[in-house]
Design goal:
about 475 residues, alpha/beta, Aminopeptidase, Rossmann fold, five-stranded mixed beta sheet, 13 strands, about 40% helix
């Protein structure tokens, strides 16, 4: 069919004709259409608001609009939630069939255009631009002043966005994290004070490569790869005890495990669950009842010897110890969760508490060895120390220093550097003299007697 553009320009602008090429649009924009006769294949379309009855057809189009097996930035579930929640969305319809959609998610005065999709038979014909224009009218009508979209390279919509004066491409990187739990679990985790730990907390751990490697092999990897573990008959651990002198980083290790796994970290403080021993025991039971609804979590109890020490007849703490002994087996029966208990005095723990059936591992966490001390100091001082500093010498002088002791040493030394910078009114690097001064006023937490006692505890209680 041949159309004289000089005679029918208005009909073309009404958006009821479908153009298989960009010739007509280019000619209209150039203003030279009165002198041209262009061959067109014509079909009518209608753009209207998306309603719930359109969802089946819309989802069909969304599912076929992937790019190289990449899921679009906004999932189908998120788009459906926005549409059913009333956020503006439009469809293009031809002969009663949905052939395109443009949907948004409102964010105050910004709108994310979360899905611009076209049926594969109707692409590159101008419908995308029309959909965006119609969606823009609806968005500005509800007070939106900024419209944004993120697309994978090659995803449907590039041309349509450019036609509607969107700026791009820009040097943007999209970062995404899908939480490992749902809304119902999120409320429980929030109520229990849980939080997600950055994965970097694991990589920042230092001070004992042997212990770090052991925990990664025996605890982290089986929990992170349960299907592989199941195939070879390995049951991932459900509970572990970390023991060692104060300041050796037991809490940091527990947090690091949670960060490495991407699971919520929930710290339980038994002493805060009640005033009397029966109240605390009941609080422990209630807390672990709530945890049954959580699929994945690292649960941490610090200084567990305060509530799980040797039971004595008529002891006020007996009810608390009994409560813990009762909840641990049911907690560990369900895979995908890990209980970590930490203690400075493993010898004080009740014998039943230490049994293999309750804890898979009893792991000693001691002060860092010489190599670990060098690693810790290098990580803390690498960018701020002068070339004159001899970290190997400092490591020789810090035998028995825990990770916390080394942190305090660094803080004391950098305080000297800070005060010197104030006087000189310029930044100065850390000097050997700063560290020497800090060493003169610092003391190790683990003395010779402590080290001997810890070695004895390892011999008696360690299990890994």
């Amino acid at each position: 069919m041949v159309v004289n553009l000089a005679q029918k320009p208005r009909e073309l602008f009404q958006g009821i004709l479908l153009f298989p090429s960009g010739v007509v649009q280019e000619s209209l924009a150039a203003g030279n259409y009165p002198h041209q006769r262009v061959a067109l294949i014509m079909a009518s379309w209608m753009i209207r608001d998306l309603v719930n009855a359109d969802l089946d057809g819309a989802i069909r189009i969304w599912e076929e609009s992937g790019v190289n097996n990449k899921e679009p930035v906004f999932s189908i579930a998120e788009v459906v939630a926005a549409v059913t929640g009333g956020d503006p969305a439009v469809v293009a319809e031809i002969d009663g069939q949905i052939v395109g959609t443009a949907c948004s998610i409102l964010d105050n005065d910004r709108a994310w255009i979360c899905r611009l999709a076209l049926s594969s038979d109707w692409r590159n014909r101008g419908i995308g631009s029309e959909l965006l224009a119609a969606l823009e009218q609806r968005l500005t009508g509800v007070g939106v002043t900024r419209m944004t979209s993120l697309l994978h390279e090659g995803e449907i919509g590039d041309t349509a966005f450019l036609n509607q004066n969107f700026v791009g491409p820009m040097p943007l990187r999209f970062f995404d994290r899908r939480e490992s739990y749902g809304a119902s679990e999120a409320q429980i985790i929030h109520d229990l004070g849980g939080r997600l730990i950055p994965s970097s907390d694991w990589t920042r751990l230092s001070g004992g490569e042997g212990t770090h490697s052991l925990i990664e092999r025996a605890i982290v990897l089986p929990l992170a790869n349960p299907r592989v573990a199941e195939r070879v008959g390995l049951r991932p651990p459900g509970a572990a005890i970390l023991f060692g002198p104060p300041g050796t980083g037991k809490t940091s290790i527990a947090r690091g495990i949670a960060g490495k796994l991407g699971w919520p970290f929930i710290e339980v403080f038994p002493a805060q669950l009640g005033v009397t021993a029966p109240d605390i025991a009941a609080g422990i039971q209630t807390t672990f009842d709530q945890l049954r609804e959580v699929d994945h979590a690292v649960v941490f109890i610090d200084e567990v010897d305060e509530v799980a020490s040797h039971r004595q007849e008529a002891s006020a703490g007996q009810a608390i110890t009994n409560a813990l002994l009762k909840v641990i087996p049911s907690f560990r029966d369900r895979q995908g969760r890990l209980l970590i208990c930490a203690t400075n005095n493993v010898s004080r723990l009740d014998g039943a508490f230490l049994r293999t059936g309750r804890f898979d591992f009893v792991i000693p966490i001691g002060p860092p060895d010489r190599t670990g001390r060098i690693e810790t100091l290098t990580r803390s001082l690498g960018e701020i120390m002068s070339e004159e500093i001899d970290l190997e010498l400092v490591a020789d002088q810090t035998e028995g220093f825990t990770v916390a002791d080394l942190d305090h040493l660094v803080r004391t030394a950098t305080q000297s550097s800070f005060e010197r910078s104030l006087v000189t009114e310029s930044d100065t690097l850390l000097l050997q003299s700063d560290l020497d001064l800090a060493l003169r006023i610092s003391r190790p937490s683990v003395g010779a007697d402590d080290a001997a006692s810890f070695a004895s505890d390892i011999e008696t209680y360690a299990r890994y």
